[in-house]
Amino acid sequence: MEGNRIRYIVKVCQGTGCIAGGSDKVFASLKEEIERNGLKAQVEVKFTGCHGFCQQGPIVDVDPEGTFYTRVRAEDAPEIVASHLREGRPVERLFYRDPLTGRAIARYQEVPFYAGQQRLILRRCGHINPEDINEFLATGGYEALRKALLEMTPEQVIAEVKRSGLRGRGGAGFPTGQKWEFCRASPGPVKFVICNADEGDPGAFMDRSILEADPHSVIEGLTICGYAIGASRGFFYARAEYPLAVKRLRIGLQRARERGFLGEKILGSGFSFDIEIREGAGAFVCGEETALMASIEGRRGMPRPRPPFPAQKGLWGKPTNINNVKTLASVPLIIHHGADWYSSIGTEKGRGTLVFALTGKIANSGLVEVPLGTPLHHIIYDIGGGVMGNRRIKAVQTGGPSGGCLPAHLINLPVEYETLAQAGSIVGSGGMVIMDEDTCIVDIARFFITFTQKESCGKCVPCRVGTRQMLGMLEAISRGESVDLDYLEKMARNVQLTSLCGLGQTAPNPVLTTLKYFPEEFREHIEKKHCRAAVCKGLVKAPCHHLCPAGVEAYRYVRLCGQGKFTEALLVNREKIPFPAVLGRVCVHFCETRCTRGKLEEPIAIRALKKVAADHYPPEEAFRGKRLPPSGKRVAVVGAGPAGLTCAYYLAKLGHQVTVFEALPLPGGMMRVGIPEYRLPRDVLDKEIEYILHAGVELRTNSRVDSPEQLLQQGYHAVFLSLGAHRGMRLGLEGEDGLVKEAVAFLREVNLGQKVAVGEKVAVIGGGNAAIDAARTARRLGAKEITLLYRRTQAEMPALPEEVEEALKEGIKLVVLVAPLRVGRENGRLNLVCQHMKLGAFDKSGRRRPEPVADSEFSLQFDTVVAAIGQAPDLPKSLGLATESGGTMKVDPRTLATSRPGVFAGGDCVLGPASVIEAIAQGRQAASAIDRHLGGTGDIEEQLLPTEVGATPAFPVDEGEKYRPPMSTLPAEGRANFEETELGYSPSQAVEEAHRCLNCDLEKR
Amino acid sequence: MADTITLNIDGKEVQGRPGMTVLQVAQAAGVYIPTLCYHPLLEPYGGCRMCIVEIEKMRGLPPACTTPAANGMVVKTYTPQLQELRRAVLEMVLSEHPHGCLTCERRERCQPGDVCLRNVAVTERCVLCPKNYRCELQVVADYIGMVGHEIKLAYSYRGLPLETMDPFLSRDYNLCILCGRCVRVCQEVRVNGCLAFTYRGSQALVGTAFGRPHTESGCEFCGACVDICPVGTHMEKGTLWGGFGDRSVTTTCPYCGTGCQLKLEVKGQNILRVRPDPDAWNQGQGCVKGRFGIREFVHHPERLTTPLIKKDGRFEPASWEEALDLVARKFSSYKPDEMAVFCAGKCTNEDNYVMQKFARAVLKTNNIDHCARLCHAPTIPGLLQTFGSGAMTNPINDLANSELIFVIGANTTFAHPVIGMKVKQATRQGKKLIVANPREIELVRFADVWLRLNPSSDVALLMGMARAIVEAGLEDREFIAQRCENYEAFRESLDRFDHAFVEKTTGIPWETVDQAARLYAQTRPAAILYAMGITQSTHGTDNVTAVANLAMLTGNVGKPGAGVDPLRGHNNVQGSCDMGGLPEYFPGYQRVDNPEMRKKFEAAWGTDLPPTPGLTLSEIVHAAYTRELKALYLMGENIALSEPCVTMCQGAMEELEFLVVQDLFLSETAKLAQVVLPACSFAEKDGTYTNTERRVQRVRKAIDPVGDSRPDWWIVCQIARRLRGKGFDYEHPSQIMAETARLVPQYGGISYARLDSGGLQWPCPTPDHPGTPILHTQTFTRGKGHFLPLEYRPPAELPDKAYPLILTTERSIYQFHTGTLSRRVKGLNDLHGEEWVEMNPRDAQGLGIATGDVVRVTSRRGEVEALALVTEASPPGVVAMTFHFVESPTNVLTNPAVDPVAKIPEFKFCAIRVEKVDGKREVHPKGVEAVTR
After folding, report:
1. pLDDT tens across B338-363, in order?
2. CA distances from A257 to A150, A193, A227, A228, B84 (A)
3. Least enclosed by CB within 10 Å: which of A72, B439, B533, B721?
4. Is B196 part of the contact surface with chain A (CB cutoff 8 Å)?
């Protein structure tokens, strides 16, 4: 009868992860719902072990078609039953969604996370009921044992395992067959075999999942191992923290005994064997085999030196073989399918597959099984879906706390024992932690050493003391204290060389690899007291403040905004910068990149809040601040850009007589000639410059200075050169001269009010902010069709994402993965020959390098082609000062002093093209240094807002996800003129937005 | 060659044996490799990483201490890389150890008390550490060249409080370098496990479980941790700051019969500290009494410093002349039968020899006995009848060769701690252990089978086991046929011990008896240890015989690892028996009623000797009570506490007309004397002791006699000379030993000259004989082993309505015998300073008694009060007490009924009742854990 045929099998994952997510309730309510709908006869509900994709759990599979539901909750049961099981319409909202594309994927086998894997060890995980031996048997279970016991001698089993090339999956990668052979050859009637299931790495859970999802495969492997070696007793050493794994093992052992796969004369052969479970109390060191044996014997888990090896003298002094869960789970495969089949997988030096627990800042975290030799990037991008939140990968830690921290540029590395070892890491037991830019490398080294120094058993000196000493040094670095990095490295090497067991010998790996691959980040902490990830608590008050080059205390003004105290908020800005209104519009807002709120949903709109505050101009007297009596010293500032004007402003307030020389007719530098007016209205800029001049700064426009020497001769006591970077970089194309405009020049002409004709079709080459500015300016100059050409993908564009978005709104076409080859004039138009690009291997920046696609040339016709691929300082030869190779000026990084005493330099001419806020920061630094040079204290700090006028923080209520209020802009269609596009927040929006602030500065430290 | 291997160490060819580690080969060849965690007694550890070496064809830098030496190895112990790494590791060690002085250039010139101008906390300096100049860390630091070396690592002082609350031990874990030696010696050698590693990672340290005080953590205060600590973490209290001795004297411990060799560190006339001799057979191990219980009694202010004569009931100091003249005058006024002497298991062989010679040759009486009567009297007839020699058959260290050890009637870990330690070590090696004891003694925890027999049912148990063995056909037929006689009669006597009878008598299910019997018979070689639980009984001789029968039945005699080992109580009770301190024997167990023997001694001593055996100790006491005996000369015995039914014994002493007591202190017995003669302690005289394993060992004079005290042999000689005795003009005890050697065949080859290079185990008949570690190897001393049929006899006094409980006497590890010496040591009193009446909760509940209650224990002979200790260690119906405490003289209660052959009283069994007395004391459970278990 139709009604009684099983039509669907609903499989609910019951791994630890899914149970924690409530899968047992899902299971119960699905059952109940199916019964209520009278589908009991047609639908079978059962549970499985871990799928290894716990992040998406609870997971429900519907067979036969393999519908893959993720994040199922008990409340979803009625819909699944009603829609899918009764009416045959799967519930799309529960499908897996690709984190990159957002596409819903219905079928298990189509999910990229699974599609990219080769699941051998994990082949049954999530597909069978781990507590039902029949399901195991139905999938070829115990066939290998049967074959080994009845058709093979122990020697043949060992030979087969040897031939397969299987190596220990517990970390060291010792050839398994050889290990077995040693133990078999050891004299003595009593031998033991042990399965090491003491998985202790932070973030690693593959052994647990295998035991939870497919315990019999490990039991089968251990029994075959016992047969091969000649042991009659086996042990599972599992952590007591793995109660479910232990329970399923226990059930598995019981069933295996009942069916005669364990016990006396197994399967009628002469071989008798049984297994006991020993639960460990969770000491990391007990993963080390000699410590593990001590623990089984009931002693303190402390390793002992080898020789004698466990194969000679192991548990209770008897020859003993220890293998990891994954190693043993691979054994039945080898025996069943043969060594030839197995050794065809993987590489020459590493056969078979590895299982990794992929965790960290990765879109798809979970268990991943791939053949040895698979490149890291395949695991991270194709399977893992890349870094969460579209951030950039910084490093990968393989092998847990004993492994190493590999930088992004090693992401092409094939994962193998030898390659990882060469890079300073290990395969280890298979942890793989992905780190993005929010990770501080010092902090990561500190974290892993904290773990190992806590878990050291305390037996040998280097491990016990050395790890703690290293920890002490890393903690000092994270506080910005001075530490001799060479000494730290030497210490790490000594610990590596002299420690007794693997724990101590590998504990320094995280330190050594981070020192090797990220030395500058260590030095930054020590020399600049700067943690670029804004993580190290000893240095960072709040990430927004820490990342601001000028040191604006963003958390303070955000908090004031939250109270509607916009004037006070502005004063907080004014304490550090003279251009709050400019920055409120154009700042690249480093502050927002590490905003803690951004790790939840979106960072606080700090820039937008600044704009709201800055537009509430109070009377000037309110923020006059510091004003020292005249010093009698004269200072010349060359260049009236943000760096020069900032420097002049602070020097004037310190009582010096400052003259600013500007070659162009108007002051403001790039703020005026680079940034288009629709982003920065000129009255806003003028007002802030005016205020600087009011502070006592003399401005001379149209005054080009070619030599600071002249100024010194004229009686200036010091000179500050802030010449900017006004020369556009050339594409280096055939026929480029005269045909391709440089974006800097183009924008300068437009911004200085010159008439510029662009024609109808404009191409802008580049992906940075200048490219977007050029494109959007061209739109406002009347171009009909504007194309942005970029050689990588949108994800890699350096421009601010919101700018790119606005450009796209304005109808600007973005063509990615193309690079220009030649340009020529044809039929009155410019003919731009391009070629397609593809992303190749990863480069040092952690981005994939664009590579040309062969024979993919194509031509495009334009009226104007603008190149926006970079700019550089345009320094006159007559300066007579030392420069760097990139054409920037050479200065002392602390004082910004040039090679000529009395002459200082800062801004883009030192940094190369950078941002307004970085230029301001340099202006501040220069002002302080020049004041010291002139005999002052160099103290430019001022307090405009009494601290007691601080604001009570508004702590965000836990009301779920909360996003920024959307930014209102001019309608895209109406953007024909240079009117300011972004309209900004209303005061009430600003208050609301500021309330999202998590008040990081108040965190207890 | 298979038994030597050749290695190349630092370019030199050196030899070693297979099984040695690289470090051992190097050390044997005189190559120094620095180590901090290595110790020859301990299993290889590899923790300090100081001994790393380079070995060709080996990966990495293996530690020499754990790497097995192999033929052809090429080892480098000193290379720039090794020194560099050792220095790096040592820097880490020093980063946790106050090291100001270790790296200081002017250390050599710095004196304690100097103000240190360097940036070092004043309290953290080597010059202020009691271990300064004895510190192994200093040696290693100097070898590696730390002087003048700047340590860059952050120094972290743990800031832990000093642990000084225990008796004897003080610990400063701020100095600990985590070498783990103390933990390992406590676990591997002492098999105690009081110390362990605590926590992990950088918090790892040494300590007790849950940080509890040592008194509550099973510590035995053996001091092994102190002796093995390479730095100043574990130190002994008392003389912590006493500096160093100016000489070290090797001697023999004066407490129990184990005979541990000790080194007395002496400064001037003061014993600073006592350490077990690491080079002697006891491998540097001792017990709490030997280690910490000597200095205080030797230098105790209550030591007798002058002869005392009782005048009008009060003692008055007298000169030696006066006292000796008085004694001689008095002795000359009695008939030989009216006089008796007691020699002593505490005195040297020489003292005892002179004493018995004095009794026989001068007083003309064989009324001579001593405390052996109260402990191992049955061993002598029991083993003489069966084996022909009444002593331990195998040496102590031979226990390491035993596959099984059967401990019956002995609480070895308390009474003979170092032998107990060997038993525990054997179990740690996986050897089997059977314990037969009504009480749950410490060894029960280590036992494979515990036979909790009813008190005094030993014959039934042992014969039951023999029956089980015969029934299972596990007897050693070949051994029985070739080496023994009278087997059939013995086998027939087994009929009387059917399963039901054995079960009923012993209280143990037959299955368990059978299991133990099979285990004993099948696990060979097997040794039997026994002590007072076997002997102190009205059928003690039967008990001993039953043990001997069992050993012969399984062929466990005359082989390494086998044997019957009576554990003798006092330090020299074996020797005092050997020396003829017995009424029926001349020295060397030569009977006084054997005319040939008598002739030999008459010739040697130049006088006629009494031909009949004299009175035994109990008989002497009885004769005094009935005034048949009038004068008694007592050397180093305290029978007023040690005799059963001491009330009667004290009364007997009071009946005497003349009692002379010769002792270190004014003991309970001495108080009853007319003349008290001050003897000097073992530390103040030369001599020899013979320990329980028949090992004759030297006692060496370390300090001058305290006050006017004199060696016992000298005093006896003085009296003998006054009584015109001949042959009492010895100038040095070595002359006494020479005379002994001439007269006692077993001692024939023993001389002080030979003993200087270590002890000798008798029989050692000739000067070139190496001594005899194992007896009866070829034939039994008496020829054939003689099986003796046995019958079960119940104890003399059974519980009844009025006295429903059984009292058995026990020992504490912290006290010795009647406490004459050990009660003078404060720390020992702190650990166990008063009597506990240990009783089962079931009995206690019925009587409304809780731990800490004052209870009155009453037998037909008297009553004592003490504190109750309710414990499962005592089986229901059985109460245990020691007899160490004069305040609660347990022997007031015990039954003076004696074994018909050996005349030993029944200390282990008498009927009592217990009742609660008003009053409860706050219980200080210091060491109680150790006391009960």
Report:
1. 999 999 999 999 999 999 999 999 99
2. 18, 18, 16, 19, 57
3. B721
4. yes
